[in-house]
Specification:
It catalyses: (sulfur carrier)-H + L-cysteine = (sulfur carrier)-SH + L-alanine. Pfam families: Aminotran_5 (PF00266). It contains 13 helices and 14 strands. It has helices at 16-28, 38-57, 71-86, 101-112, 130-136, 159-166, 188-191, 229-232, 240-277, 305-314, 334-340, 346-349, 361-376, and strands spanning 4-5, 65-68, 92-96, 116-120, 141-145, 172-176, 195-199, 210-214, 283-284, 295-299, 317-318, 324-326, 329-331, 350-354.
Length: 377
């Protein structure tokens, strides 16, 4: 049975050109970019070239890019780095109820350390209201962290409007763009963003590599202590093969971003049309307009998410839920709780499908037919 992978929001397969680049670099590049000899200088050159590619993709300068081990470290560096660099100015942080746990758990840890965190609600489309943020701002607010787009329902947040609001406020503005990067065009200067997190494995690059953009002049306290890599911001010998492969993934995404948006919207529409044609009853969770092209979260009234995901797996379909299953019990998606409230049906019958480079229209129609058979019997 050939499996149909519809979980690209969780992680993506490496693109063939990225695999070739990664393999070649592993075989050829072993130098330490901090070494002064020729082998080290070769590694440094590739690191610098990759950093330029990362910066260009978001309208930044290469000196504003810090290489990290992925999105989680980038989020943690932005949050803890800001908190401990600016705690003498204030201890108030604003975020949202629908953030990735890399942000939420970091904020919860800061609360235990004496910081005050405001968790903004969202509407039923999963979008933050600007007035809620405006009313939450205080003189001692040092950081606002709002994700660019939600990983569970794909809702795109009003990042530019938030950036405009914060232009005259001293708080740093961080956005977790891990899910959005590669699916929307980003310019940090137009958005007035101070900090932005990106991860390679969401855009068909290798796992374990990412970057944090930090606007010039932003002061962050490092998370790691050791060498003086990354302009003393992130100690540790850089993983040059992964960095170069990540850069190749970025180049591929940037060159095809408009086409991929069109392709994924068409796949989503074909999938939904086939479910409708088969008589499946469902509703789409989240915004129908301000949404990532590759993410689709649907509520199916006649299903239970735990059982349904097992049935999908047995049918050869990879999908996911924001719910966490532990020891036979379910911990509802914090995103859907924020959108709909507690004890609502959507918490137990919603599934996320997400599309990517290896999906075809024939595939998603086949998946929709298998899903319909599971639901309708």
């Amino acid at each position: 049975m050939t499996r149909i992978y519809l979980d690209h929001a969780a992680t993506t397969p490496m693109a063939e050109e990225v695999i070739q680049t990664f393999t070649a670099e592993i075989n050829e590049e072993y130098g330490n970019a901090s070494s002064i000899h020729q082998t080290g200088r070769n590694a440094r050159k590739k690191l610098d070239q990759s950093r330029i590619i990362f910066a260009k993709s978001i309208g930044a300068h290469e000196t504003e890019i810090t290489i990290t081990s992925g999105g989680t470290e980038a989020d943690n560096y932005a949050i803890f780095g800001t908190a401990y660099a600016r705690e003498n100015e204030g201890k108030h942080i604003i975020t949202t109820q629908i953030e990735h746990h890399a942000v939420l758990h970091a904020c919860e840890q800061l609360e235990r350390a004496g910081f005050d965190v405001t968790y903004l609600p969202v509407n039923k489309e999963g979008i933050v209201e600007i007035n809620d943020l405006k009313n939450s701002l205080r003189d001692d607010t040092i950081l606002v962290s709002v994700m660019y787009a939600n990983n569970e329902v794909g809702a795109i947040q009003p990042i530019q409007a938030i950036g405009e609001l914060l232009k005259d406020h001293p708080a740093y503005f961080h956005t977790d763009a891990v899910q959005a990067y590669g699916s929307v065009e980003i310019d940090v200067n137009e958005l007035h963003v101070d900090l932005l997190s990106v991860s390679s494995h969401k855009i068909n690059g290798p796992k374990g590599i990412g970057f944090l953009y930090g606007r010039k002049g932003i002061m962050l306290k490092p998370l790691f202590y050791g060498g003086q890599q990354e302009r003393k911001r992130r100690a540790g010998t850089e993983n040059i093969p992964a960095v170069v492969a990540f850069a190749k993934a970025v180049e591929l995404k940037q060159a095809n971003i408009q086409k991929s948006v069109t392709d994924y919207v068409q796949l989503k529409q074909a999938f939904l049309k086939q479910l409708e044609s088969n008589g499946v009853q469902f509703t789409v969770n989240g915004s129908k307009e301000n949404v990532l092209p590759h993410v689709l979260n649907i509520s199916i009234p006649t299903t239970d998410v735990e059982t349904f995901l097992v049935q999908l797996d047995l049918a050869g379909i990879d999908a996911s839920s924001g719910s966490a299953c532990t020891a036979g019990s379910i911990d509802p998606s914090h995103v859907l709780v924020a959108m709909y409230g507690e004890n609502t049906p959507e918490l137990r019958n919603s599934v996320r499908f997400s599309f990517g480079i290896n999906n075809s229209e024939q595939q998603v129609i086949e998946a929709a037919n298998k899903i319909s058979k599971i639901i309708l019997g």
